[in-house]
Structures are given as structure tokens and as C-alpha cells.
## 1
Amino acid sequence: MAETFGAVLRRLRTEKVISQRRFAKRVPISQATLSRWEAGLKMPEERVAARLDELLDAGGELLALWSPIDLHPLDGDQRSRVEYSIRNPGKIDQRAIDAFADSLAAQRRLDDVLGPLPLLAASRAQADMVKSVLKQVEGPHRRALAGVASEHVQFAGWLFAEARHDGRAMQLLTEAESIADEAADGTLAAQAANFKGYIARQQNNPRAMVRGFLAAYHTPGAHVSQQIGDAIQAAQGYARINERDAALRLLDTADGLIDDSGRVAPPATAYWLSPTFHRLNSGLAHLALGDHSVAVDHLRTGLDNLPEDQQAAEWTIEYREGLRQADALN
């Protein structure tokens, strides 16, 4: 796996046998700031990244990994808690775990606006960092931290899936499922399985779609909003292998769950699972069934009613292409 900016910075510094304290003075910056950069918690300005590259004789290797985006908008107290937890994992508390979760929530929203590529390096670094802390934590906070770690790994897997690095995505999603099981969090395990179904759809593999989405649907603890989406997307897979009756049964199942979903909000870790989003996937399912007018209605309505910050999201491309196809066939 490619190294991140923080990992390369740390490697180059240690290869030159320079302590954090000495190197920070040469930049000059505080040692705490250098520690945050190496941990992947924050990215320096470009001119500072160039200075780091020069001081380490990196020949552009470090600067090439620089990203202009600060992915972790935590306040001072939250940053301090995260940094303390990294240094002292055995003393982690719930507020530090919440800070890890808040940082990830901000990254998820950025994905809707920016797409996966600008986020990959920092997301991967932070997932590795949270996993490293988890390995050293026992006691009452381990399960809660495992849930947050699973979500971090799952999100990194999603970004790799969006960017079509399918093999790495599948590895991360399988790891996320395992950590979610330790956390006894069915919603996280189900979402990781769902993303495997998404990868199968991008690979034009309808049988694997059915397996992935039905695995997500049947995951113990899956939220009803997740089950609706899983049933609809498994239906699309069945439709694409000409098993129309199975597809229609699953669409009926999804319709029967919709009333239940209206009583509870989707889980925060799958905030996008709104009725509008479900219409998009229903549109693809009806397109696969040859119900072109229904597909046009669902896809157009779904796309028109997405929240503003999701309107241009990279993941909407396949739905816009589906609408184009359905319109042409209608």
C-alpha cells in the first residue's frame, strides 16, 4: 500500500536519525505540530511541505503526497484528547473516542463534495492510526473504540471502491466487517457488506451483487433503512440475470419496510439512506427490469431532490447515466 504524507515524513526523518524536537526547530515549528503531521491528523501548508521536503533531501517525494485539504476540523480540546490518546492508549476516554468519530463525520461530508481522490491519503492514515490505538486498548472503552475504528476502515474502503481500486477496497471492507463484529455493531457490518455489493455492481457482476447485498440485508442488527436499500439493490442484481420474479419479490419486501423506516432516522454512519436515495436505486432496479418509464420517474425525482451538497457527488454519476439510458429507451 502506498505511504501517506505523514508516514513518509516520519520515515524520512527517522532515516536521517533526527529527533522530532531537533527537526521541528529546523523547520521551525513546534514539536506538537510535527507530531500531528506525522500522525496524519493535519496537513501543513504547501510552502511548509516544500520546506520539509528540502530539509529531508526528499527530492519531491514528500511534496508529491501533499494535499491542500485539512480533513480534521477538530477544536483544540478534541485535538489534545486525540493526541493524548495516541501517546497513552490505555487512558483513552469517551470524549476522545467521540473526537475520532467527529473527525470522520467531516470527511464523509467532504466526499460528497470533492470525491475520493483528495481524501484517500489522509483517510488511510487516520484509519491506520485509530487501528493502532485500538490494538493497545482494553477495558470498558474498547468496544466503543472498535466501532469507530470499523467506521474509519470502512470509509477508507469506500473511498478505494469509489476510486475503483477494487482489490484494496475489498480488503479494507472485510477488515471493517471483522472490527464491527468485535464492536457488536450490525449497522457497520451491514454497511461494509453493502459496499462489497456496490463494488460488484461497478464490476458488472450481478451474481456477486446479489450475494453482497443479501449478505448486508441479513446481517444481524442491520437498520431498516439499510435493509430497504439492500433489498432494492439485490433486486437489481436478480433483474440483470433475468430472475424477474425474485427481483419483484425483493422490491415488494422493500416497499413493505418503507413504513417502518419512516418512524426512525437512518443511522448516523449511513446518513445518506433517505427515501430520495432509495428512489435512485429503485430506478436502477426498474431499468434492469425493463420498466423504463418507472425508472425515469424514480431516477429523475431522486436526482432532483438530493441535498445540495450531494448534487454533484461523484457517486451520482451512475444514476445520471442510468437516467440517460432509461430516457433513451422510454
## 2
Amino acid sequence: MTEEFDILDYLRLDRMPHFLCPGCGHGIALRAFLWATHELGISKDNLAVVSGIGCAGRLSAYVDANSFHVTHGRPLAFATGLAMARPDLKVVVITGDGDALAIGGNHLIHACRRNLDMTCLLLNNEVYGMTGGQVSPTTSAGRLTTTTQAGNPEPVF
């Protein structure tokens, strides 16, 4: 693209201020995603952003495009149906480790198996961050969380 990237062109400003914690990488990931969307020339009218529950799940609400906030663990299942019904759309899922690898793990496997034309951005913060920092399937072994105060005894997923 030759025109300059302005993130404000891609955000729903009425949803501000955002809820992200200081130092959280989710805002950086959102900006990188929107920049890539701009660079690839994807029109907001042809973009569908699907998210579930959790910190990453809130990001679709900020994107000025067709956005869908669905139930916990189901963004990939919803996006599968959307991609099949509307192949003209660029379908992007923004999900977190808890949403995609815990309750939604089965949907992740089948989305990969189906190999549809959609993109999944899986943001891994290694905890269930929105509910207080509990251990998740991707929490590093030995890491302290609110539910593993002696360190996570399990190996990482």
C-alpha cells in the first residue's frame, strides 16, 4: 500500500478507552494485525473478525469491520461456518490460549483439519488473565499463578 497507515481508520473510537492492562502485548498484536490488514489492502467491508471470551476475545470489539463476539471456546467453530457460507470474506479469528486450547481445543483441531481460507491469531499470555491469572493449558511449568502458588506442577501443553 502506498497510503500511510493510520490506526484510527481501523478502530471503533466509541469503544475507547480500551480495557488492556499496562504492559499487555494484546494491544501490540492488535496494532500489528490492523497494520497487516492495511498493507494487504483488505477492505473493512470484506473483513470479518471473530473472537471468543477472555482478554484476546475483547479485541474484535475495537475493530471497525464485521466483528463477531461469540461464546467461550467457539470462535473457530463460528468462523468455520462463516468462511464456508461467505467465501468472499477474509475471516480472521483473534483468540487466546484459554479460549482456543482449553474449552475450544477440539475446534482448533478440526479447523486445522478442514484447512479453510481463514486466519487464526492465537495470543498466548499463559494464564486466564481476565479472571485473575489462573493457570491455563500453556502456563509454563513452575510458573506462579493465583491457582498455582507453589508453581505450576504440570508440563506446558
## 3
Amino acid sequence: MSFQFQINQEVKFNYDKALLDKSKKYIPDTISREIHFKNLGQLVEDRTKLENITIEPITDLLEEQKYHKDDTFILDFGNHYVGHFSIAINSVGSPMDAPLYIRLRFAEVAAELSHESEEYDGWLSKGWIQEEFVHLDELPTILSLPRRYAFRYVEIKIMDTSPKWYATFSDAKLKTALSVDEENVKLPKIDDQELERIYQVAIKTLADCMSDVFEDGPKRDRRLWLGDLRLQALSNYKSFQQNDLVKRCLYLFAGMTSVDGRISANVFTKPKANPDDTFLFDYSLFFISVLHDFIENENESEVLAELYPIAKKQMDYSLNFIKPDGHIDCPDDYPVFVDWSNEFSKDVCAQAVIIYTLKQFIQLTNRLGQDTRKYQLMLDNLETYAKDVLFNSDKNMFQCVNGEFNIASQVWMVLAQVFPKEINKSIMGTAYKEFFPIRGIATPYMYHHITEALFMSDHYEKAVSLMKNYWGKMIDLGADTFWEAFDPNQPDYSPYGSPIISSYCHAWSCTPIYLIHKYVLESNE
């Protein structure tokens, strides 16, 4: 599985001051809570947990411990948090005749602490590793780290002191820095205890990714991705209802499009708003989805009027790649993401995504009372090609141009509702027989779409089972929040070769909130 970096420095961007100023209006207040560590812990073997490692408690009496060169201790905060860490440090014994030199490591899961940073040789920057080396010339002091961290555990190693004195520590705490407080969200009554636990962890996951924007991950990347935003927004509508934050994100993307109309796959907000020069065909189109879903929930005519032209320009740009026979042909420099894996063909997925988003765009156009005939003709052409050429009636599945059948193609065509529900049910039934248990997919992003396609095609029990076997398995392995990547067939899989760079709280894994609300709770009302 891989993701190719794009470097498109020649791309020119529009910076729409009015839209960007609008985005600033919806910057949320930061909610801060002070969280104290729960206990000291130690790494121990546990074959039921991720990488066979867990942390068991030792004591909560930190201030009674004395530490010298090469000593190490682990602080356990009891849950995953995002914020700024501080700790009081003093010396005991003879006068302090040398600086205290310490290393701090922050970990979302215990397995991270079983690896050393110097072992890492992956394709993402080592700068993301949550590690600090600090020299302290004078004690006592309160060490307050300026960088925000995402963690449950803090490991502190005494690199050196002096033979004449010991270091002592107390008052270890963090100050959270998020735009919501998951303790204040109203949780629905869920009779199934396993689904209830999955829902609770999903709430924690979403909350810890909600800052001044919907971040993809608070540990690594820390920015706003369109694919993640679409799923976060859907989950937010069912939980925190921080809809102004969705609005802010929409205005950020709309205010920084490329001159030709493309919308960046992601944007940065610090030190100032800035679009990335990465473009993904499906992510660009999902701006339309996010706008559509926002209007469905909020029905704000001003937002639609201001952002529809951005959506239209993006859709018109994408429709340039439709051939006369009705198939979409994406250029190499505008790839389709769908999933990290490049081990399957994605041309059918691209066809389905543009059908999916074009239907939403037509709905938005109708809301404004504008002419949809051009777009309806395009949609008819796309769907006709999908039904007549891409669908293999003998196999009862959609087939890629290279002859390949894969799970993603069936899922996205079902989500796009190219066929009626009964045929979709049959297609997903065939896909279930052919592709389950799932292989070669390791992102909650794709697992979300598989699960929703099962729900939408009336395979309720299969969808619930998949949620339990995927998200529930992460909990069994010790997850406090859901992960960026997880392969149940290879639980220790990391796309970067080491857990110290992996994100164990990641936005696109929060969707059990949405799935449980829409397909379990609301369908049973």
C-alpha cells in the first residue's frame, strides 16, 4: 500500500478574501480541561493486545520516586488526549552540579514505546515522531512543552544527571486543546453492548480530531483533508452538531481553489490558510458532497448561494474527462484515491464517484432553481455506460477495463445507486461471497464504504458483523480511539513500517457514529 507525494508547484491558486474571511468567522472557541495522570505503568507482554504489548499500572505515587541516569518511567493518563503537557521537576541530594538531561516520548498506544525512533526509516518525515530531548539547567522548575501532542502515555527517560543528586517529578498533567468536549455529548441508547462500546470510542475519535478545523489526525498531518471531512461531517451531524465548523471548512476549501477550478485534496491553516498542491479526483468532487450534506442538515441558502459556483466549477472541470461513450478517463496527474492500496484498478470507482457526486450536484442546482438538463444528460450517459459496459451480468458484478473484479468497484457503484435496491442487494451478495473475508484493504476509510454499501443494499446483519469484526477488533487490541490503518489479518500492519509514525486517532475511522445512527438506531424507530 502506498501514497505518492505530488509536487505541483506550478499550479496557481485563487485566494478569495471574502470567502476566507467568512471561514475566520466560524473559528471555534478552544475548550480546555486539565487532566492529571492516573498512574505510573510498565510495559509488559500481553498477547491479546497490539504487537503483544500493553502497559500495566504500578503506582500513582509519582512524587515519592527518585530517578537517576538511565532510569525510565511511564505516565498513563488513562485515555487518549490532545493537548499540552507539563510536569514539575525538582532535585534531591547534594546541590545540582550538572544539568538534568531527559527524553520525553508521547504515545497513543503502548506499542509505540517498544520501538526506538532511530529504528524508523519510512517514507514519512521523522519530524512527526513525538519525542523531545530537554536540558534543564536549574531545578526546581515546571517543564511546559509548547508543542501540542496526542497521547495516552508519556515515557520519560533520564539521559543523565550527576552522581550527586536525583531528579524527582510531580504534578504531571495536560491541558486539552479541542473545540468540543466529548463528555458533554448526549449518547444514544444502544442495546447492543458491543456496538455501544464501538460508538463511544468513535465519539472519542471524532472529538480528538476537532480543533480549529476537522483534522485528519491530531498526532500526524494535523490538517484538513476533503475525504476525511466528508465522513467527519456526517458523523458530526449525528453527534456534536458543531455545524459551524463544517461551514468553516467548506469556506476554507472554497476560498483557495486552483485557477482552473480544482479543489485541493487538503489545506493547511497554520501559520496561515494555505492549499496543498495535492489533487485527488475523488477528493475534489467530495467538496460537492460536503456542501450537499451540509445543506441537507442546515438548509442555509446564503451558504449554498456563495459556494455553489465553486462546486459548479469543480464539477465542470471533472466532466471534461468524460468520453463520448460515457466513461471517465482520469489523467495520471489527477489520480483517484479510493483507498491507499494500489493493488486494484480504480477506474470503475472513478465512474461511480462522479455519478454519486453529480447526483448531489443536480440536487443543489435544483434547489437554486437553475437548469439541470446539461448535467442530467451527462448523468444519463455515465450511468448507461456503467450498466451496459462495466456491469458483467454473467458475474453479477462490475468489471474494470483491465478485466478485474474487486470489492471497491461493487461498493462504490452501490453507493452511487446506479441500479435499483434489489439489484444492488444481489450485487453485494455476490461481492460478499467473492471478496469476504476482505483482503488487501487496511483503511477504516474503505471499510466505512463497504459497511455502508452493505447497509444500503439490505445486508443488515453482514454490515453489523463487519463493524464488530473491524472496529471492535481494534478495541480488543487496546484502542482508546480508532486508527488510521488496520488490517485484521495483520494487526501490527503499519503503512510506514513502524507504529511510532502511525496515527492511532484518525478522522476517517470515526464513522460508526454515523453508521449506527442512520442504519441501526433510526431504521429501528
